[in-house]
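Margin note: ligand = guanosine-5'-diphosphate.
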Amino acid sequence: MITVLSGGGGGAKFVDGLSLLTKDFSVIANTGDDIEIYGLHVSPDVDTLMYTLSGVIDRKKGWGIKNDTFYCQKYLKSLGYEDWIMIGDKDLAVHVKRTELLKSGITLTEVTSALCKRFGVDIPLIPMTDDFFQTYIELDNKTIHFEEYYIKRPEGRIKKIIYSGKEKAKPSDRVFEALESSKWVILPPSNPLVSIGTILSLKGIRKILSEKKVIGISPLIQGKAVKGPLVELMESSDFEINSFGIAKYYQDLLDIFIIDSLEVDLADKIKGELGIEVFSTNTMMKTRKDRKRLCNFVLKRMENK
Ligand code: GDP
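Resulting structure:
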């Protein structure tokens, strides 16, 4: 059994590739991006993972349901609602269902299981916590929710990443069960600071990971993010903006780190200074074939350890 800690971008593409090779894994999803929109509980990473694993994802966009329409949102806009986040009609229906189920008193974990069943997802998809947890970005002049930052990309230097709810939020029993039954934990090419960092910030997660074998894949290629504001977020930290910086962020957890072939010159530094075993390969996942190939490479490194 394997557990993958994941966000909804690079993480979802990786999980898709893994599902083409094995069904023997669970996914723990970041819920720091969760946000209330139009009074509904939107869980961006959980949904991207669920849509990806069920095959309904809009692969071109990387979010939402393929061939979705946006009639409801257009109408909501005419009634004065904001539309900075695009939500399709079918997607909206999922948020209505999630919100209704949450209001009936069941947990986000149970709601996610019910939705996954409806979407035919047979891989366990587990939200990192059932408690309130939201990531905020503190800029020079304002503090905004990470999802809003991600989409609007306002000007200004990032001063701090705030994990709101971190002190009280606990991972659910399902999170611990998945990790306990896993020999390996994979940190896919997700954003370390806001997708995986949120999961790692929860009580007990780092401890249990220290008892597991952990393999990570860098989300940076030649010091650049494939998508999203990772570089901007890293600029607010002391980490070098390349795969060495990512390896250092995960230093106390990683047994193996996979970097892109284009950054192979960093391998000796990662190995020498951080003591982590390093392999390089093409980590760019443009097609499903790329996803499968990268996952196969990762599984092979795990087999040999
Ligand atoms: P988010 O929830 O949308 O932020 O998605 P994730 O956190 O799961 O993934 C975002 C990170 O994935 C970014 O830092 C990207 O650089 C990285 N990423 C996306 N696609 C790829 C890819 O094909 N290869 C690699 N190596 N990284 C990727």
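The chain has two domains: 2-131+167-303, 134-164.
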